[in-house]
């Protein structure tokens, strides 16, 4: 038997497929078509609450650049008046700005509300938007505890508006290919999944500098970061989680250091601190955050060893699904490299992929730039990694390797494809259920909430304990 190496398509074709060229060939059968249909003006009136880095970049400048023919910003809101005024100029829109969300909601006619605030406040704006019968597009995680989750579920049931979850990882080219292989039953019926995600000492550490380091804001990284991963798992498996058991601890950051300061810029320990970040070299951060500290005191370069940090920096989770698939998951926040390892075990074979493992490439990547490159929207295939490699192997047969041209930027190309579906109603894989709704947002955060409760209470947590959602064996059976 000989192994097979399959190159999916050329790099030029791959780049084209993530851009405007592909739009004409996509199938317009989006689950969002009825939600985001055309308005009388021909453009959707969009307002956004939360003008931090994500609001400015993905939902601001990128949205206007790629979809300015379809959307018009009619309002921007942030609790920090300096930041929201800067964002108006930075995004390049001409609309009123607000520090009072209720005032914006009551005075601005909008078709879509985008929520990109601190995680623990998402529910407030989602619920108020739905109460006005407005469609709401929210960043992950949908919310941070089970009470707020139930409130959002109830609010959407009463509303004519719909909640759209911005789960862009689903749309990533490499993840869509994994979904395709799983759906083809090439490895048979899925029985278990192993997922290990590694955040490096630049990206992982940065969560502990920011507001995310306090669980009252983020709900821990089991919500803020892992919601992406839990949603991918739910989507791949096609079933609902029923039970979660987890372990976690704070052992590297926070109080686990011999010295600390208030924030990096004035710190007396900068010469000996491996985690020192010179914010003054980041022009965008200086204009967005440093210049506006006087309004609310928020420090973007907080010390990641401050004693008030109370989230976990290592986490492991066991998840059981309604269809009996079992998952082993871990998240590391101080890895020397950034990447992941996926393995899917089926009754007839195994499917694997990995990314970012240094010894797999010709040379080491600059770890300090990996996350920023992921967030931008240009391709960055490198000599280090030219292809995503997906390996499948059926029992009693040799392995088959599939090579996809490497694309990490724009969340593996997912940002553009997600927005194509939301705003243009286009998706080349309509049967894959990329579009994420309130149930998807709920099941993703309920895993994180259950994991946090499991760590705190030292016991397995049933998903059914948390909200009135009834786990389904096949999550798309009734769609």
Automatic annotation (TrEMBL):
SUPFAM superfamilies, alphabetically? Glyceraldehyde-3-phosphate dehydrogenase-like, C-terminal domain, NAD(P)-binding Rossmann-fold domains
Q: Where is the Gfo/Idh/MocA-like oxidoreductase N-terminal domain?
A: 45-166
Q: Taking every annotated instance into account, which residue ranges of this chain make up the domain Gfo/Idh/MocA-like oxidoreductase C-terminal?
A: 179-463
GO MF annotation, one: nucleotide binding
- Show the segment(s) annotated as Disordered: 361-384
Q: Where is the composition biased (Polar residues)?
A: 367-382
Q: Name one Pfam family in it.
A: GFO_IDH_MocA_C
What is the name of this protein?
Answer: Gfo/Idh/MocA family oxidoreductase
The species is: Flavobacterium cellulosilyticum
